[in-house]
Structures are given as structure tokens and as C-alpha cells.
Amino acid sequence: MRGGSKVVVEPPWTRRGVHCFKGKEDALVTKNMVPGETVYNEKKVSVQNEDGTKVEYRVWNPFRSKLAAAILGGVDDVWIKPGAKVLYLGAASGTTVSHVSDIVGP
């Protein structure tokens, strides 16, 4: 999975911080809160904006996260958005909670 200027990262899913990466392979992604770092060796995609800056996204695997699977399955609203306060009880390997952290932001 490669980024660059030939790929498109579509607007957030219901403006909630989740994006759809359209390239050779389609994927659900979140904007990486700590660029350059991964949590569970997930793939990263860098996309160059129109102004020349690069934005890094992390691929969210729906086979490792029930929340990602629910989003891809059509759940309309999970009440997690940028700036929200979230208590997540279930951070075993950090897959879902790391992406929730990306969505909520600092």
C-alpha cells in the first residue's frame, strides 16, 4: 500500500475522523497522531496535500478491531469524534484504542 499524489483520502466518515483511503487497495484509515510511529505494525500511508505538506495515516484493520468492522458494516454513528472524551475498557493489544486516540486527538 503506497501513498503519494496518485491516491485519494476521502473526507471523514460522517465527519468523525475516520477516512477511506482509495488507491490500489481501499482501506479504512485514521490520521496518525504520532507520525512515524506504529502501534501494532500496521501499514502507514503518507499523502501529499495540495499545499505540499505530507499527512500520515494508519490503516485500520477491521479483522483486528470490532469498531472498524462496525464502521465498514454501516454503523452510522459511534459517538466518537475529534475532541470527545472516551473511556475505553478493552485495550488488550491496543489496536482499537490507538485508532480511537487518533480520532479524538490531543
Structural class: alpha+beta
| Poorly predicted segments | none
The helix count comes to 2
The span between the termini is: 27 Å
Topology:
Layout lengths: L7 E2 L8 E5 L4 E5 L12 E5 L5 E6 L6 H7 L22 H10 L2
Which terms would index this structure?
globular, 106 residues
Q: Could you characterize what this model shows?
A:
- Belongs to the methyltransferase superfamily. Fibrillarin family.
- Pfam families: Fibrillarin.
- Keywords: Methyltransferase, Nucleus, Ribonucleoprotein, RNA-binding, rRNA processing, S-adenosyl-L-methionine, Transferase.
- It is found in: Nucleus, Nucleolus.
- This protein has 106 residues and is an alpha+beta fold.
- Helix content is 16%, strand content 22%.
- The chain is built from two helices and five strands; from the N terminus they run E-E-E-E-E-H-H.
- The protein has a five-stranded antiparallel beta sheet.
- The mean pLDDT is 84.
Short description:
The protein is of the alpha+beta class. The longest helix has 10 residues.
